[in-house]
Write a structure and sequence with these properties.
The structure is a single chain. This protein is mainly alpha-helical. Among the domains are: 76 residues; 127 residues, Histidine kinase-like ATPase, C-terminal domain (Heat Shock Protein 90, 2-Layer Sandwich). The chain has 26 helices and five strands. It has a five-stranded mixed beta sheet with strand order 1-2-3-5-4, with helices on both faces. Strand 4 and strand 5 form a beta hairpin. Helix 3 runs antiparallel to helix 4, helix 8 packs antiparallel against helix 9 and helix 12 runs parallel beside helix 14. The longest helix is centred in the C-terminal third of the chain and has 68 residues. The protein is globular. InterPro entries: HATPase_C_sf, HATPase_dom, Sensor_HK_TwoCompSys, Sig_transdc_His_kin_sub3_dim/P, TPR-like_helical_dom_sf, TPR_rpt.
Amino acid sequence: MRALCAGAGLLIFSLILLLITGCKNKPTRQPKLVSSADKQLVTKALASMDSLQEDPHNKIAHLKSYYTSLSEPLKASFARPIFKKLFMIAYAHPDSTVLPFYKAQFILSQDQPEIQAQTLLSQAAYYLYINQQADSGLLALQALKPYRAAFNDTVYNSYYALIAQTYYQKGDFQRAADYYLKAIKISEKLKDSMSMIGNYGNLAAIYSSMDEEDKAIPIKKWSLEYYTRHKNDAYAFIGEVSLARSYATLSQMDSAFYHYKRALALKKTGVSNPSVEIILYTNLGEIYYERNNLKKALYFFDLCKAPLAAIGTEEQRLMYVIFSTPAYEQVKTDLFSEIKDMKTAIQLFSDQNNLILVKAAYFNLYMVYDKRHQYQNALGYYKSYDSVTNILSSQANNKYITRLRTQYDLQKKETTIEKQQKQIERKTAFTRLLGVLLIAGVAIAAFLITYTRLRRKRKETALQQQFSAGLIARGEAERGRLARDLHDGLGQNILVLKHQLKDGGKIDAASIDRLLEEVRAISRGVHPIILDQIGFKESVYHICKHLSEKESLFISTDLQYNGELGKEKELQLFRIFQEGLNNVIKYAQAQAANIQTKIEGSDFVAVIRDNGKGFDVQSTLNSGASFGLFSILERSRAINGKASIHSSTSGTLIKIKIPIHG
């Protein structure tokens, strides 16, 4: 529960930072032909829309329509405030049209980079705060790279806050804190108190996530006082819930209930924020259940259902199930769906390494089965709970091992891969002549078939020769590299040590360590030792992480592997992944790539995807110029696998099917 609440606290404070500071920023390029009178007219029109009491979805439609009616210079001047208004409404009242609108404006603003940059920032905010999709948010932020040279301090402030939120959602608290500190530094430089409060609030949320509430509470109180003093009820609502949860974590329940009651009072005034309401009601339901007040616990758990239905993610729904099921167990006879959901939650949060929630799910399943006198099941879940508790207690990061595994989500629409099939239709017009002509026709057909087969065989032989020649050339190049590494690096360092010994000198441990590291580096170049040391799955994670950090390419993984392949197949598939990713980096001009493995029937399937520019597969293979593609095809054949390559302007997909038993 603590992870849920801390995440929401950070999410909302980041929202404050992004949407308020970003909208105050001046465009990076001054729009042309915009008079002050025109600006005043637009400002008044927007103020008039704000004052209207109308359905939120109608207001979104009116804002979008009004923006599209503006001249191009006025769009450049008012993109930020209008995009901000759209976001704020969609955040409280989910609307599926806002994100497509941002994407459409990016396409329609090819000659206005300041608008394009704002659409990408808005898309990133939508993915992070509304959809809770860190990977998609990161892709939008990476797409901002060409525009960063024109960023001013205020835009960088918003940009750093979004980057920080991305790392936070991925469980990398240290990087998240680093980027918030960067944003705080800019806020102080700009003397922007609102932005400063938001960034410090984000930092406080990170402290809460790491169970350092003693550091978080003073900052949260300071932020809440600011919002209350400025009568900003929407943000005060967020602050009250966040501060209440911190006090509850420290078991200071009088202070916690004081702020929970203030939050409920703000809700009665009309403040609406479904994400925060989910946290508020779930927290209160959990607390009242622990205090044996079942009636109030069920009351707040029931209140939680409406915001969950409106905006809740699958993770939020499963968190709710974890904490509400013990209460509903006392009034429901059939808990089949709840128990099923809790088991799903264990699998999901285990995959995400969120052991706090896994622990809670195991304990609550234990309680459910214990109360229903199913003691064997209860004992099993209690053992699992105890095991996770021991794992958590041994960790240095205050019980947190939360590193979310990234899911592949390209910025563009999901690529539709068209199968390239050539159909040759031939019609015979010779229906009258059967005798000699029929015999001649058969002879000609036989000749054509034989000729076609010979051509195909020669082509395959030529391609095989090209591959072999490339393999030999690459082998010679590799031997040359090894010789240079041994002579220029390792050999020279050994020679230095020899002279040191000869002159009566001492060899320090650091020199020996450097030699060992050189030997390891050379060894890694010859054979991927990590396969033997940490196994296939972790080795693939390692190379993807290494290349992501080294190259300007976002690489995500979705690996389902439990040792189905032998060592030789693991090695060849590992090399295929290396070759495929190297090709993406060299040629694809892609922003993102994905490595996936899964079981399909009796086959083990491996997939390499990217969202690059694509290429003509057949002509590239026919040219013999791509050793990398031939290497992938040949390595697949070597392990009885079958590789297929599909490519279009939306990206490339390489799929390898390997029989598990064969």
